[in-house]
Amino acid sequence: MASNATLPEWFDPLESVVSTVFMLGSFVTILLYFVEILILVTLRNTVYKGMFYQIFTIGIIIDVISLVNNYFGCVFPAKGYFRDFYLSMGTFVGQMYLMIAWTARGIQGCTVVALALNRATAVCLPIKHKQIWNSKYISLIHVFQLGVGLCIGSSLITQNFYWKFERNGIYIQFYNKDFRRGFFMSAYVIETIFVASIMLINATMVIAFRTKYKVRLTTQPHLNQKVMNDKQRQEYNLNIVAALTCVAEIIYYCYVIYVFGINTSVPTRVFYLLYDVINDLYCGISGWLLLIYSRSMKAHVTKMLRCPMFGFRRMRIMIPPEQQFASSTNIDGNKNTSNRRVPTCGTPC
Predict the structure, then answer these.
(1) Cα dihedral 64, 65, 67, 68 sign
(2) Is the pTM here over 0.85, yes or no?
(3) Contacts of 117 by beta carbon, 8 Å cutoff, 6+ apart
(4) Where are its TM segments located (predicted)?
C-alpha cells in the first residue's frame, strides 16, 4: 500500500464521519441480528423449520461475528482506540482478526452458494426438493458451509505479522509478502468460483420461475385475482432480492480485483475505509432483507420490540406456519425458500 502522506486534508473529517455513521448502523444491525437469531432458534421446529433456515441461521451468526471482529480487530486499531492494549499484545490480536475474518469470509461464501442451491431446487425440482433437502446426507452441507472457511483461516496460524503505523492508527499486515501474494491469488480463484456459481444458479432459478409462472397463467386461467396478485408479488420480491444479491457481489468482486490486482498502490487508510464500509453493508444486508421480505419475521420482531419479555411466550401462536417468506420461489405452493445475498467483501491484507 502507498503512503498516506499525500491524502488531502478533507479526508480526515470524511473518514471520521463515515466511520461514526457506519459504527452506529452496525450497532443497530447487531441488535436486529440478536433478535432474529433468538426468533429463528426458538421457532426452529415450527415457522422456521427446514434446511434453508438452518443454513441461514448459521450464516447470520457468522455475519455478527464478522461485524464484531472487524471493529475490534480493524476499525478500533485504525482509529487509535486502545492502542496501548493492542501493542502490548504484540500481533496476537491482529493475527486473530485476520484468521477470523478470512474464516468468516469462506463460510459466508459457502453459505450463499448453499442457500442459492436450496432455492433453485425449490423452483426447478419442486417435487424432489423436499426429498433432496431431507436426505440423511444433507448434514454434509454444514461440513461444506463451515469447512472451506476453517481451512482458509487456519492457513494463517503459522504466519508472521506486524503493525503498520499510519497517523494515529495501526493496521495489521503480512510480514511474508510472497505468502501474501499467493494467499490473495488463491482467494481470487475461490471468489471467482463463488461469483460464477451464484450468478449461474440465480439466473437458472429466475428463468425457471418466470417460465413456470407463465405456464400457470396459460393453463389455469381460473385462478382468482388474489392468487395471481400473490404470485406477481412473489416474483417481484424475488427479482429485488436477486438483483441486490448480484449487485452486491459484483461491487465486492470489482473492488477486490481493483485494489489487489489493478491498483495495488491504494493508500492504506483509503483501502481500509472502503473495506469497512463494504463489509458493514454486506454483513448487515441479510438481516434487513429477512425483515423486509418475511412477513412472519417482521411480525415476530415487532412483537419482540413491543414486549420483549412477553414476546417469546406468544411467538408460537402468533403467525401460522404457512406465512413465511413473501419472496417464495416455489410457485407450486411447496415450502418456500428465499435468497440470502452475496459473499461479504474480502478481508484486508
Answers:
(1) positive
(2) no
(3) 201
(4) 20-43, 50-72, 92-117, 137-163, 183-209, 236-260, 272-293
